[in-house]
Design brief:
This protein folds into 2 domains: about 70 residues, no CATH class; about 130 residues, no CATH class. The chain contains 9 helices and no strands. With about 200 residues, it is an all-alpha fold. It is globular, with a radius of gyration of 20 Å. Helix 6 packs antiparallel against helix 8, helix 7 runs antiparallel to helix 8 and helix 8 crosses helix 9. Helix content is about 80%, strand content about 0%.
């Protein structure tokens, strides 16, 4: 992509102007960013799927946003949120995934493996967007914000077994029960390793 810096400057200026206007209506800044991207993309005729430079810029933006979110969360904070993460998060992901998988299979005729993957994927939400909205609304430390944060953390963890499931489901010579069992075992091993690393990092001086 040529003239990347001028485009970024125009996007920042436009996003700032839009968000100043939208704040009068108590609209979250995420809306302004989405509108800005739509305007810039339409005006510049970007092909987001085929532009590697634009893809890398977007990745840097997500990395910095997640970094600022990480500054808000500590290991001690997470230990105090076991109920929100395990109870609320597990219930939300499992119930939503099952409901959406059933709809995909029964209403739209997707094969059961595809329906499970679709339901699992749609059970997740954007941690970056939701936490930014909670921060801007001053609700991150409220009961609602705490519950939402716990669910979002579990969703981020759930990405690992979901990706494992997608890989394992590509096998065509095993039954669905065996594939689900393999996914559960691999997910338990992976999460166990991550939990051990997290504890070791927390205890380190």
């Amino acid at each position: 992509m040529q003239n990347l810096i001028p485009i970024i400057l125009v996007a920042v200026a436009l996003a700032t102007a839009l968000n100043v206007f939208l704040r009068r209506f108590n609209m979250p800044t995420v809306v302004g960013y989405i509108i800005t991207g739509t305007i810039i993309g339409s005006a510049m005729h970007f092909d987001a799927q085929g532009d590697d430079t634009l893809h890398h810029v977007a990745e840097f933006g997500i990395v910095f946003l997640m970094f600022t979110i990480g500054l808000e969360v500590s290991f001690s904070h997470l230990k105090e949120m076991k109920k929100e993460v395990l109870a609320f998060g597990l219930s939300q992901v499992v119930c939503t995934a099952i409901a959406l998988a059933a709809i995909a299979n029964l209403a739209f005729g997707f094969e059961i493996k595809s329906a499970i993957i679709i339901g699992s994927a749609l059970a997740l939400s954007s941690t970056a967007i939701v936490l930014k909205m909670l921060n801007e609304g001053g609700q991150i430390k409220s009961d609602v914000g705490r519950s939402a944060l716990g669910i979002l953390i579990f969703q981020d963890i759930a990405v690992i077994p979901i990706l494992l499931m997608v890989t394992i489901f590509t096998s065509t010579d095993k039954s669905l029960a065996v594939l689900l069992g393999e996914t559960a075992i691999n997910a338990a091993i992976t999460l166990g390793v991550l939990f051990a690393i997290g504890n070791a990092a927390h205890r380190a001086p």
